[in-house]
């Protein structure tokens, strides 16, 4: 039984926390409800309480300057144990409430509370009425109190739904931003990085790594006689050639390197921590790999010319690309 009670309380607290109401700023809607309750029932104090693990926190309290109290039995902490409103005409003679500090201090004699019951059956707090003198409520009053408590839960649900909807919109916007960002740096035909991605990646690499012993090298590849492929076999075949070349270049690089379509039939590969000699060797191996490509509809071999440039430690990204172009 103790285990069941602990599990039930854990579920109830989870329901309290999902509304993110504890310790939140005062809400005008809740203040209106407690002010209305105080006027309608003619009591000096009306409050909306949330029962936490070891305290009772007040989302609104009309008539008493209090934000929270210890979770003591007898008042709201007892009300949440029942699905129906609880009315105690005289707290001093109530076995559950007479030892409560508010009662022993003489601050409260009358209590009525309607549990704030969620749609999934958890009592997370109460809409309560307090008076310094004993009194009672009739059946209509109890029903009205329960209806006001239901309004509090409705407001909590609306606030929760609004937060969830805002969060969903933000997630959608974040996904769309990532998608648009990916599109802005991806070549739509080959699926590899585009010129913008290369420019940004190269600028970042140069800013982060200026080690002259492990320099950055660029290899610019320009497909030979590509126009004749388009003219002889059609642009669809030319697109297949470009895609096959991009895939081939991608197979030649390491993690951290970058292959980009620079424009038309030009590709640039950024090789990190690669000397000029090693970059030239990479270009030669890649030239041979391209020559071995078999592209459907193209009987001729795919060949390319290469230009290699290695960063000298001081030049800009544009200068490095220019040197690779001159080398080609």
TrEMBL record:
Residues 214-328 form the GGDEF domain. InterPro entries: Diguanylate_Cyclase, GAF, GAF-like_dom_sf, GGDEF_dom, Nucleotide_cyclase, Rev_trsase/Diguanyl_cyclase. It comes from the Bacteria. GO terms for molecular function: diguanylate cyclase activity. GO terms for cellular component: plasma membrane. It holds the Pfam family GAF. GO terms for biological process: cell adhesion involved in single-species biofilm formation; negative regulation of bacterial-type flagellum-dependent cell motility. CDD domains: GGDEF. NCBIfam families: GGDEF. PANTHER family: DIGUANYLATE CYCLASE DGCC-RELATED (PTHR45138:SF24), REGULATORY COMPONENTS OF SENSORY TRANSDUCTION SYSTEM (PTHR45138). This is Sensor domain-containing diguanylate cyclase.
């Amino acid at each position: 039984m103790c285990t069941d009670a602990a599990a039930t309380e854990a579920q109830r607290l989870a329901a309290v926390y999902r509304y993110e109401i504890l310790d939140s700023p005062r809400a005008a809607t809740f203040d209106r409800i407690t002010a209305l309750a105080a006027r309608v029932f003619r009591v000096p104090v009306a409050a909306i309480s949330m029962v936490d693990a070891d305290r009772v926190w007040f989302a609104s309290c009309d008539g008493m300057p209090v934000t929270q109290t210890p979770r003591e039995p007898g008042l709201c902490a007892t009300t949440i144990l029942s699905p129906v409103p609880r009315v105690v005409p005289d707290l001093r003679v109530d076995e559950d409430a007479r030892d409560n500090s508010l009662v022993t201090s003489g601050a409260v004699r009358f209590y009525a509370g309607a549990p704030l019951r969620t749609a999934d059956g958890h009592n997370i707090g109460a809409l309560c009425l307090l008076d310094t003198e004993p009194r009672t409520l009739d059946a209509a009053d109890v029903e009205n109190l329960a209806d006001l408590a239901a309004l509090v839960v409705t407001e909590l649900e609306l606030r929760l739904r609004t937060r969830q909807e805002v969060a969903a919109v933000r997630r959608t916007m974040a996904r769309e931003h990532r998608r648009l960002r990916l599109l802005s740096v991806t070549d739509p035909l080959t699926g590899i990085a585009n010129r913008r991605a290369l420019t940004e990646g190269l600028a970042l690499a140069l800013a982060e790594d200026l080690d002259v012993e492990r320099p950055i090298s660029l290899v610019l590849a320009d497909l030979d006689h590509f126009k004749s492929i388009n003219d002889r076999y059609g642009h669809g075949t030319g697109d297949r050639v470009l895609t096959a070349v991009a895939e081939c270049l991608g197979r030649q690089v390491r993690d951290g390197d970058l292959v980009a379509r620079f424009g038309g039939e030009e590709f640039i590969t950024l090789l990190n921590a690669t000397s000029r000699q090693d970059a030239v060797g990479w270009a030669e191996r890649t030239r041979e790999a391209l020559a071995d490509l078999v592209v459907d509809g193209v009987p001729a071999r795919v060949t390319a010319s290469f230009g290699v440039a290695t960063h000298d430690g001081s030049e800009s990204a544009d200068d490095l690309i220019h040197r690779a172009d001159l080398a080609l």
